[in-house]
Amino acid sequence: MVNKNLINALIKQLLNSSNQEKLAYEARIIQLIGGDTETIVTNLPARRGKSDGGIDGRIKVIAPEIKKVQSAEGLYFQKGKEIIQHAGISIKIQIQKFTREQFGGFKDDLERENMYVGLIISATGLSPDAKKRLDDVNADGIYQIFHIPLADILTGNINIDPVKLASGNISDKIIEELSKIS
Question: How far is CA 95 from CA 15, 46, 104, 169, in A?
Answer without folding.
Answer: 6, 31, 19, 29
